[in-house]
Every structure is written in C-alpha cells, then in structure tokens.
Amino acid sequence: MCSRRLSTRGGRPLKLFVRRQDEGSTLPDTPRHPQRLLPAFLSEVAAGRIGSSVMALLNPPETCNRGFIYEYHLRTVERLAPYAGTAGGHMTLKQNARIAGLLYLLGSLFGIVRLIYVPNKLFVYGNAAATSNNIAAHESLFRFGIVSYLLCGALWIFVTLALYRLFKGVHQVLAVLMVILGSLMVTPIFFVNTVNDTAALLLVRGGGYLSVFDKTQRDAFARLFLDLHHQLDLANEIFWGLWLVPYGLLVYRSGFLPRILGVWLIIACFGYLALSFTGLLCPDYEDQVANIAQPLLLGELVTMLWLLIVGAKESPRSIRNAQ
Question: N or C terminus of the chain: which is more exposed, having fewer CB within 10 Å?
C-alpha cells in the first residue's frame, strides 16, 4: 500500500492511502471530516479547477500501477488539506487559546467593577450613613455594579467551557473538574449574591412600605446587606482558589503553555484560600493577608494575558495533547 503524509494548517499529518494493483481495486481514501469539503469545493470553483476536483474525488480510475499513486488525486487532497481536521475543530490551537483569553479578560473586567471599583468609590467603612448617601448620589454606578456582577458570573461559564475546549485532550477528568469548580459552583453564588445588593439599594431609596423605618435604621440595614455580600464573596473565594488546581495541572501538562504558569496558578489557589479563611475566621487581619497574597494572585492575571496575547505554542506534541 502506498502512503504519503500531508500537513494541515494545524500541523496534524493527513495520510493518503492508495492500494497497489496487486492488492485489489479500491477507491483512495478522502480526507477526514468530509463535512469541511464544502468551503474547499467552493474555492475550487472560484479557481476554475472544479472539473479536476470532482473527477479526482468522485470518479478516480479503478486501479493504479505498482509503486505509483494517484497524482491528480493527491494534488486535489493537497489543495483540500487546510480544510482537514485541525486541533480544536475548525480553529487552531492558538485561536482557541486566544478566545479563552479574551473571555477570561472580559469576565475579569466585569468582576473588577463590583468587587473593587464600586466599593472603593462608594463605600465608607465604619460609616453606614455616608455609604448610603454615596449610593443614593451615584445610584446608576451602583446599579451598573450589580449588572457587571451578573455578567461576570454568566461569562465565567463560557470562560471555563473555552478552557475545557482547549485542555480536554490533555486530561479529560481534570478538564471536567475545572469546569465544575470554576463555573458550576461559582456562578450560582454570583447570582444569589446580587440579592444583597438589591436589598441594600431598596433600603437606601426608602419610600413605600419601608417608610416604617427611619433613615438611620435603613442606613444600618443597607450596610448589613453590603456586609453580607462581602461575606458571601469570601465563601466563594474558596472555589475561586480550588478551580486553579486542575487548571494549573492542565497548563503544566499541556506542552503548549509555559509550565511556570501552571505552577503559579496552583500557588494562587492557596492565596485565595488564605484570603477566604482569614476573612471568615480573623477579619481583623484580612487587609494584611490581602497585601501578602497579591503577588500569588498575579499568576492568574499573567496566564490570562498569555492566552490572549501569545496564545498556545503549536508543536506536534502540543497538537497531540489538544486532540
């Protein structure tokens, strides 16, 4: 049997087998993923090669001489090779990585609005009245924080699915665990936690049935719901950290991302856990632990930017891992 290897855009070899005359008469194999032949077929039409392409693919000769392969069929397959299976389906490994990085960045930016920007802009710790006044004066900003928080939770489902698509060939079990810890456990808490912000906003606005409470009481209750929001974030940080363990192991084992990023992600897990347990058990030391943990948490930021800017290193080994 004659054989020849062709390279696709993703680097995966495409093998063309042709039987010799003494082995019997069969048709040559067509490329994998025949559903992708339509765009290639149209390009052949545009190039004026439709006749040879159809004849080569659909009506080859019955046999071929010993030691020779169907040259015209081979030329057609070479033109169609870019449409054969590439790592990650229709997209290359680098494209999958950059899409995951883009979703990662968008989800993180929406999360930063509610978790960092809004508290620094509106909240006055230890002063419930000043906090309520700031929220009343900048109600649109506070509402945008609520919406951003919901978008962050929703986007995180797509972030983990994009990462699953990228890493499922590395280790299926770890990829599934990453999705469970990174979105299926985290996203519901995001949505439930918006109830606390909504309650705080209703109390700040007052009016209606809330008029039975005076402003001092409503300010105190609003501050209470904001504190409950923070406590639920502390609980959620446990999952923000745990999902980084399978994620880091996948990066380390992938072969298409630097191993140091995988190690850094696993270390970042312990930074999130330290923040969570300190805030729940010893809240007086939360700010000090946050300052110490910041360098550890940068591993997630660096990995996100690497995926977005650099993408994944395509090599024979990395493509095998991604399949």
Answer: N
Please report, for the chain, the start and end positions of each structural domain, with discontinuous segments joined by +.
2-83, 93-322
Neighbours of 12 (CB within 10 A): 19
How far, in Å, CA of 61 to CA of 111, rounded? Answer: 62
Q: Is 107 helix (H, G, I), strand (E, B) or coil?
A: helix
Q: What are phi and psi of 199, to 5 degrees?
A: -65, -40
For residue 174, the Cα-to-chain-centroid distance in whole angstroms is 15
For tokens 């660096």, the residue is 302
Q: How far apart are alpha carbons 150 and 194 in whole angstroms?
A: 8
118 in Cβ contact with 141 (< 8 Å): yes
- Is the Cβ–Cβ distance between 308 and 98 less than 8 Å? yes
Query: What is residue 92's three-state secondary structure?
Result: coil
Q: Enumerate the β-bridge partners of residue 2.
A: 18
pTM: 0.70
